[in-house]
Design goal:
Distance between the termini: 33 Å
Strand content: 15-25%
Shape: globular
CATH architecture of one domain: 3-Layer(aba) Sandwich
Number of helices: 12
Structural class: alpha/beta
CATH topology of one domain: Rossmann fold
Bound molecules: adenosine-5'-diphosphate, magnesium ion
Length: 347
């Protein structure tokens, strides 16, 4: 027991993002997932025994019922790994995940069915996420069948209604098509309908619009937003693109190399980013009118080897404000009410 506790502390400081008021649908605490990977040639020459990717390294956050948490960070920061951990597609090394008050890592078979009904996923790629050999009506009806609605007619009725809700019209035509006969935006609507039919409490959407044409992104996000209000859905919206996050989220957590570096209400974080990494991300948002940029001078991120990757602030090697003490791990501080940052600039 003692050993476990020590290991948890090693995994990083507690990075709480929300006040714990019992109204949370999802609570993630000090989640950790490291992957052992094949050594590169350089690592073999250096005599390193194993190579480990610290994909998720002590991440804590919570999501209130009916709200949207945006999980943002650049490619490789650990977003999809967190999604897979929450969906129970992979097991964490350490940490806990509570959903609707229940520890999802210790559910029995019945509990797991309940969990799988109530947590749905929308994937990034609307081309590979739908079975090409199935008609839309079967794709959207499949989760219903798995979860016990055996009557075909009853299933079809629910599916047609769901297709109508995601505005895939004419419904009775689209229902009998195959995925390849639809556009990217239409396919993502199918994926949303499929996520919706079981009336889940939580939908995890992993970059749901990043592979779609710019022109349809806003439509899909608007649809998701409308469904959220209508069905009181809670979302975890994962993105590397802060310009879409802005119009979609309530709170945001900024992930860098497997750790949350900043979190808060989305307007606070976007209008007044505290962490140098968040500032750089926001400066990178394309702005049609340069004079309306949030900041005059953009921060130049240094591109160097990440020497202090293992122990201190993960952003040390790239940070324009790096100080000596940044070689140590900064604690998560509440700088303003509900606005947290893990950075020595605020100590
Ligand atoms: N199954 C795996 N085996 C080894 N490394 C992995 C595996 N899955 C993810 N990773 C690594 O973990 C890190 C985080 O990946 P991921 O969660 O996919 O990031 P994101 O979704 O933010 O782009 C990356 O360095 C990635 O290469
Ligand atoms: Mg990803």
């Amino acid at each position: 027991m003692v050993v476990i506790k020590m290991a948890m502390l090693d995994a990083g400081s507690t990075q709480s993002t929300d006040s714990k008021d019992g109204d949370n649908l999802l609570e993630v605490d000090r989640l950790r997932k490291w992957f052992r990977v094949k050594r590169s040639i350089i690592e073999i020459l250096q005599g390193r025994q194993v190579s480990v990717v610290k994909a998720v390294d002590g991440v804590s956050f919570s999501i209130r019922r009916g709200s949207t948490l945006v999980l943002a960070g650049e490619s490789g920061s650990g977003k999809s790994t967190i999604a897979r951990l929450i969906l129970r597609a992979i097991e964490p090394d350490e940490g806990s995940i509570r959903f609707a008050g229940r520890d999802i890592l210790s559910l029995d078979k019945k509990g797991l069915m309940w969990f799988r009904r109530n947590v749905q996923m929308i994937h990034q790629d609307p081309y590979s996420s739908l079975n090409p050999r199935m008609r839309i009506i079967s794709i959207v009806g499949e989760p219903l069948e798995v979860h016990g609605i055996k009557d075909r007619k009853e299933r079809d009725e629910i599916v047609l209604k769901a297709l109508e809700e995601v505005r895939l019209e004419p419904v009775d035509e689209i229902a009998y098509r195959y995925p390849h006969m639809l556009s990217g935006g239409q396919r993502q609507r199918v994926a949303i309908a499929r996520a919706l039919v079981l009336k889940p409490m939580l939908i995890v959407a992993d970059e749901p619009v990043s592979m779609l044409d710019l022109s349809v992104r806003a439509e899909i996000l608007e649809l998701m937003q409308n469904l959220k209000v209508k069905h009181n859905i809670t979302y975890m919206y994962i993105t590397h693109d802060l310009s879409t996050a802005r119009y979609f989220g309530d709170r945001i957590a900024i992930l860098y190399k497997g750790r949350i570096v900043e979190s808060g209400d989305i307007d606070d974080v976007i209008n007044e980013p505290l962490h140098p990494y968040t500032q750089a991300l926001i400066d990178a948002i394309p702005e049609p009118d340069p004079s309306s940029r949030l900041r005059d001078k953009s921060i130049r991120i240094r591109f160097t080897m990440d020497v202090y990757d293992e122990s201190g602030c993960r952003f040390y090697a790239r940070c324009p404000y790096a100080m000596d003490k940044c070689k140590y791990e900064p604690m998560m501080l509440e700088v303003k009410r509900g606005h947290y940052v893990s950075c020595f600039l605020y100590k």
